[in-house]
Design a protein that fits this description.
With 294 residues, the chain is mainly α. It has a single domain, classed as 2-methylcitrate dehydratase PrpD. 64% of the residues lie in helices and 0% in strands. Helix 2 packs across helix 7 and helix 5 runs antiparallel to helix 6.
Length: 294
């Protein structure tokens, strides 16, 4: 069980075994599953992620009426070249929205690391595979990289919004996606770690304030922020930029920040956007059973 990213980096440098393989070996040791079988299990999860993206249905709306069709709007605007960020980033944004909406509409998704943050890692990985023609084998390896980062975050801090705010969900997902993206672009363990650190630093302190207590507003759009943050963090690393604060210390800081956040800002729907006038109005409408118009 790896308790820090530095432990993985040191082992990679000592043995020459790549980051992803070290994660697989640790998991094999814990689960007693063969390396080949474990790789196939991860491949199946990646394929489920791809299928969830392909199965997006723009006609669906969540039970509350708060979520649905924004992914299709993003797709249409991208295809019509009406946007600012460029096709690659726009595709990432589109996929993040679609996966978040699919979750709200009770479709099958891959929680990575949580259902509420399911659009971050999937948007980054699926877009990279499609646009950069990366082989599936490499994508599965990237999932092991992401899993290793997520495992360290879980052990050092938390992945639960109720315990650490949204920095623990979108922040962790963004960190995992950044490290995976760096790996796919040829980065070693040290570079992966800096990508994870920069991504988490960018979202440190992010609160969890779901309107009406639902993982829809602002959660789905935060998946977009987390995915784009992951890519900008990866690009900084690829440019030779490094985090002044090591990843493990960033994760420790995330734990401390999460504990310092008041209960109102940790998934209780009693603070932040949830208690704005509009947020309260939405909650009241839903309690009355009238979601129409939202």
């Amino acid at each position: 069980m790896y308790l820090s990213l530095q432990e993985i980096i040191d082992l990679e440098q000592e043995t020459g075994i790549p980051f992803w393989e070290l994660i697989r070996r640790e998991e094999c040791e814990e689960t007693k599953i063969s390396p080949e079988k474990l790789f196939e299990q991860m491949r199946n999860m990646y394929r489920e992620m791809k299928q969830a993206d392909a199965d997006y249905d723009p006609s669906l709306r969540s039970h509350s009426g708060l979520a649905g069709a924004d992914g299709q709007k993003m797709a249409a605007a991208r295809q019509n070249r009406e946007l600012l960020c460029g096709d690659f980033i726009n595709r990432v944004m589109e996929k993040a929205l679609k996966m978040g909406e699919s979750n709200a509409c009770m479709r099958k998704i891959v929680a990575a690391p949580t259902a509420g943050s399911c659009g971050v890692l999937s948007a980054v990985l699926l877009t990279m595979e499609e646009q950069k023609k990366i082989p599936e084998e490499k994508m599965v390896e990237a999932l092991f990289v992401a899993a290793g980062i997520g495992g360290v975050i879980a052990r050092k801090a938390t992945l639960a919004g109720a315990a650490g705010g949204c920095q623990a969900e979108i922040g962790a997902a963004s960190s995992m996606a950044a490290g995976a993206a760096v790996y796919l672009m040829g980065g070693n363990g040290e570079a992966i770690s800096h990508g994870a650190a920069l991504a988490m630093k960018g979202l440190l302190g992010l609160v969890c304030d779901p309107v009406a207590g639902l993982v829809e507003v602002p959660c789905i759009k935060r998946n977009v922020i987390g995915a784009v943050n992951a890519l900008t963090s990866a690009d900084m690393v690829l440019a030779g930029i490094r985090s002044r604060i090591p990843a493990d210390e960033v994760f420790d800081a995330m734990r401390q920040v999460g504990r310092a956040l008041p209960e109102e800002l940790r998934e209780t729907a009693r603070g932040g956007l949830a208690v704005t006038p509009t947020g309260k109005n939405i909650r009241e409408m839903l309690e009355e059973g009238s979601p129409d118009g939202y």
